[in-house]
## 1
Amino acid sequence: MNFKFATLAGAALGLALIANPAQAQSADKGRVAFIKNGCWQCHGFEGQGGQAGLPLAPNTKPLAYITAFVRNTRGAMPPYSEKILPNADLADIHAYLQSRPAAPDPKSIPLLN
Ligand code: HEC
């Protein structure tokens, strides 16, 4: 990530924090839960997807979808029971993923042009 983009992303996040403190708090807790539960290992720190996991952000799916998937998956991803990952934490993770900004248009990044 280059410096300009980091600054821009920081400014955007700052604005989001001012705009909706309660949601931002949930997103903050969600970031912690996303890291603590190891979601990042397969889905990337920003939920952008990686070699193992599908992208979860931006364009995050509804909480009901994510909950159903995380509780019941029997595929490549291990399921997380409510005991391990309570619904409240999952809601925070959803808020975190929703707060991830969309990637900028590559044409808007001077270094890439
Ligand atoms: C061991 C790697 C791994 C970990 C850890 C992991 N995932 Fe996944 N996840 C995957 C893979 C692989 C898929 C695609 C699986 C499939 O389609 O069966 C997936 C799919 C998903 C999907 C469905 C996406 C879609 O668009 O259908 C959601 C939601 C999801 N993961 C959320 C999470 C959350 C939240 C956590 C942490 C609590 C997490 N994952 C941890 C590997 C992982």
## 2
Amino acid sequence: MCNSGTYPKPGSDEMRKLFRQKEDVVMLNHGAYGLAPNEILDYRIELLQEQEQLPDTWFRVKYEQNYSETITAAAKFVGADIADTFVIDNATTGINTVLKSLRLQPQDEILLTSHSYQAIKNTIDELQQTHGIVPRLLDVPLPIKSEDQIVDMYDKFLSENTSVKIAVIDHITSPSAILLPLDKILDVFEKHKVMTAIDGAHGPGQLKLNMKTIKADFYAGNFHKWGYTARSCAFLWISPKHKGKILPLVTSNCSHQTMHHRFSYMGTRDTSNHFTLPKAVQFYEGIGGLEVLKKHAEEIFSWAIPMLCKALGTKPLDIPDTMRAPFMRVIGLPPLPEKLRAIPADKLIVEFFKKSSIMIAFNSFDGKPWLRLSINVYNNNHDVEKLCNALVDYYQLTS
Ligand SMILES: Cc1ncc(COP(=O)(O)O)c(C=O)c1O
């Protein structure tokens, strides 16, 4: 697909103006919370005004129509049947919904990896406290030499550990931005007859998804990260073989109606964020869709990553190129100057922003500090140049 012609070129000043970023701010951390373009935010405000003017009409009449358009767009975007797809707030809710509905028994095991997202680790720790579930962690050491290394690790683990009932598998890992070879991994799980819930927080918009062919049992993915919706908006896909087994976390007035009613109406709440999805998909497609976004990101990364690594005296995360996330890359950081060493990585994001007006993800894993760079349609090489200068300054590499 190519840019429809109604939108400016990726990386241009005009494209940047379609988003509500302040002039002097450089945003290189789209992967954290996403950004919605102005036209989507304006539409949400329209919906909010409509809701506020006549709440009864909104909830009793307009709701079903808005929901129907939203769920239709969601299912189409992720290649799913509407019957198996539910619009929810975020990936965390999706994975929680699955794990808490499954009625696992004490001593049943849930498998994660050393790169799993903290909220999911916490969810399983809670299930350990409340239900006696046993968390298991597959260590994915770095460097990764091949996709098969990961596939074989899962195979070996499942051969040796037969109490694993379900694994939560990241499609793209969070701090390390590793694109896991999902189809090959899912073949292994099929062989061992172990259920899988895919944490696809970074999937929709960054990867082409097809729920009709995926061998997973469940998939939770965010639209608000890479799909341009207002925050928060996500989906939970439930394989038809688990129909009726997974219930929303909240029981509402609609609990005797269809699963769609039950997932969409969880008591009175504002779901205008969800209802921005059909327009967000139009925006995504209008700017050219996945191909244009990938090309834009790749053009920037192919220059930016070697340039940054040279300036910092570091290397990119050592993984196969096929396992690099399309819109996010991770590079090593030099040891922090003494006075900054005690600052945790997430606080460093804010500290660095105060000094530089640049939003970028500092992370720490495998005992080392890392930088995760996100590229979206509004970014260009100047953003990365500014980042490079600010990092060199911050780390005093020239002194
Ligand atoms: C792999 C992964 N899982 C889950 C999440 C949580 O996403 P949310 O807070 O939208 O639920 C993230 C967020 O960055 C993530 O990277």
